[in-house]
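Researcher: Predict the fold of Serine/threonine-protein phosphatase.
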Amino acid sequence: LHARYVLQLLCETKRVLKLMPNISHLSTSYSKDITICGDLHGNLDDLLLIFYKNGLPSQQNCYVFNGDYVDRGKNSMEILVILFAFLLIYPNNLYLNRGNHEDYMMNLRYGFTKEVSEKYKV
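Model: Structure tokens for Serine/threonine-protein phosphatase follow.
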């Protein structure tokens, strides 16, 4: 995805996230499932497998991602683009929690900063 569109996506996601509360309360019922996912660490195949097995996020298919989307793997940026796009489409059905790898120093140490620099020349 061209850097211009990634930047637009990031700006819009930031705007939406600022409007959201810091704490989200979710509940399940017999008629609604919630898929809870953890630690993707830049492994796009894992995210695609989750969507393949559980379906894409939608109003009927709620997801909670418990952070650590980036670092270590080589496709952290692609994961963020996909998750942010779904967040913008389904803000009430996709929840993104922050993990310890969504931190500037962790990104420097474990590779996300380098990945972004290589994919989108600064």
